[in-house]
Write a structure and sequence with these properties.
InterPro entries: Homeodomain-like_sf, HTH_AraC, HTH_AraC-typ_CS, PocR_dom
CATH topology of the largest domain: Beta-Lactamase
Distance between the termini: 59 Å
Protein name: AraC family transcriptional regulator
Number of domains: 2
GO molecular function, one term: sequence-specific DNA binding
Oligomer: single chain
Keywords: DNA-binding, Transcription, Transcription regulation
CATH architecture of the largest domain: 2-Layer Sandwich
Largest sheet: 5 strands, mixed
Order of helices and strands: HHEHHEEEHHEHHHHHHHHHH
Number of helices: 16
CATH class of the largest domain: Alpha Beta
Shape: elongated
Radius of gyration: 25 Å
Organism: Paenibacillus azoreducens
Strand content: 5-15%
Amino acid sequence: MNSRFDLHRIIDIDKWHKLQDSLSLVTRMAIITVDYKGVPVTKHSHCQAFCQAVRQDDALSSYCQKCDARGGLEAVRTNKPYVYKCHFGIIDIAIPIIIDNQYIGAIMAGQIKLRDSDLPLEQIVTRPANAETDRKFKALKNEYRSLPILSSEEVSTIAEMLFHLCNYIVEEAIHKNATIDMYRKTLSLEPTNTTTSIPPAAPAYEHLQAMQNELSSTLIDTKIQKSMANAYRSSNLTLQPAFDYIYRHKRENVHLRDMANLCHVSPSYFSRIFTRETGENFSVFVPRLKIEWAKQLLETTDLSVNQISDEMGFADPGYFIKTFKKFESLTPAVYRKIYIKHD
């Protein structure tokens, strides 16, 4: 299996490993990242003592490698996190990183035990009965007992969170690299005939337009970095993909049903837990957030009210002004004048 993407080129491995360490602490799971060949690109984050001892044993480590290989293949085949039992009955998760239908690597997480049995899990590798193995397991009984214990719901939620988070980070890194490459190529373009006034080729123009749009979005994000710095971190991990999407797609009119689908829950359940999480209905939270972003642009840019309305994804400037006035009790133009006067 070949991939046109290389994790080493796409992401900063050192920074990625720091994030991996943090995710490991939050989820209480050991985590390691591998490339599409199964070769580790990071060190193990918080590998459990029991698993460390087993993986250092020549006879037992081969079974661990078989578990990793089989788990990774199942995750790629299903294109979603694959939760399974290793040869010692410990819970592991293989989380594929797939960009543009290309498998570029995986996050291997787990080394935990289940508190319940709600997940119908397969033990993908079985060891034959062996007295020596039994003796080694008894010697590591205390380490085995100290493995973290999570519920089936917690495992499923963490698996989905890691899947969405890791794929988003890698995809954003790819887009960033592509924009930089496009910019460099554009700078290197030279006219083939300086004596004529033939316009540039359509592809070059389209590349410039794409780059301009990308850079424009980046500038807008920079201008409202104060709001982005306080991006919503949900206490309910089920909702986090929705919050991540809302904060990344400021120009879109996001709908409750779409966000519910993104979080893999029903619209009614999504609405209920969203209101419980934020204290506001979805229909109030999103426009209020957009108005907060709009205020940042009014304060820090010379963009017109019409332009800001477009940037925030409103159907028309009139509706934007009406919504702004609903939350701030004044129009965007008046708000800007007051801010400039006090500034």
